[in-house]
Each structure stands twice: as structure tokens, then as C-alpha cells.
Design goal:
- By secondary structure, the protein is mainly alpha-helical.
- It contains 5 helices and no strands.
- The longest helix is centred in the middle third of the chain and has 55 residues.
- The radius of gyration is 36 Å and the shape is rod-shaped.
- The N and C termini lie far apart (76 Å).
């Protein structure tokens, strides 16, 4: 489970987690200018600006962002990996069942052909093997 004390920097910058660096920089520039203009009048704007700077510092650094995303989305990623492993196992089982079914179908058809044509096959084998009758092992 994600750390409940973990601050959602994407929400602070009002961005989706898929945002690229340009989007992060644009959001930071827009929000920081708004908060800086309000900081003289509103005391909460100073705290919001501090959180905005912290969010930008983490999300604009690729290494820090990767670590942050791993903490924030680690559980979701693990669930997705488990879902993928389950899907692959099911696909493997279904493939084996289909292959076994096709193999059984071929066997049944071959057996049916041999059963229905045993007289013809016996005659054919007799004609093929009759010249070999003089051999000591025949």
C-alpha cells in the first residue's frame, strides 16, 4: 500500500501522472506566478508555493521522479504485473488444451481411417511384404 503520508505532487501541479517535462515546467511556471502574486496578501499562498517548489523539484528530476512514482504507484504496478502473469498462465493452459484436443482429433480420425480401411491396408501390406517372405526374419 502507498504511504498515506506521501504527498501527491501531481495533484499539486494539477497534472496527470503521464505528464512530460514540458507539461511539468509549464504548470509550475503558471502556478508559481499566480502564487507569488498572492503571497503578499495571502499567508496560505506562501505554504502553497513551498509545496509547489517541492513538487517541481521532485517531478522535474527524472531520477527523483522515478523513485517517487515507484513509491506512489508501486502497489498498482505490482497488481498489473500479477494480472499479466495470470493472463499468461491462462493463455498457456488454453494453448495446451487446444493442442491436446487437436492431437486427439487427429488420432481419432487416423484410427477411424485405419479401422474403416483395414481390409485395404491389410491387402496393401500383404502385397508389400510378400516379396520379403523369403527373408529369415519375416
Amino acid at each position: 500500500m502507498a504511504d498515506p503520508r506521501l504527498i501527491d505532487y501531481y495533484a499539486i501541479l494539477n497534472l496527470p501522472p503521464t505528464a512530460d517535462l514540458v507539461g511539468i515546467e509549464n504548470a509550475y511556471a503558471r502556478l508559481s506566478s499566480e502564487l507569488a502574486a498572492r503571497s503578499d496578501v495571502d499567508e496560505t499562498a506562501v505554504d502553497a508555493l513551498r509545496r509547489l517548489n517541492e513538487a517541481y523539484a521532485v517531478l522535474s528530476n527524472p531520477g527523483l521522479r522515478l523513485d517517487y512514482d515507484t513509491l506512489l504507484f508501486g502497489e498498482v504496478l505490482e497488481q498489473e504485473r500479477e494480472h499479466l502473469r495470470t493472463f499468461q498462465r491462462r493463455r498457456h493452459v488454453v494453448g495446451n488444451v487446444v493442442a491436446a484436443t487437436l492431437g486427439l482429433l487427429v488420432f481419432v480420425q487416423a484410427f477411424g481411417l485405419v479401422y474403416l480401411g483395414r481390409d485395404e491396408i491389410g491387402g496393401l501390406l500383404g502385397r508389400v511384404l510378400s516379396p520379403l517372405a523369403f527373408l529369415p526374419f519375416a
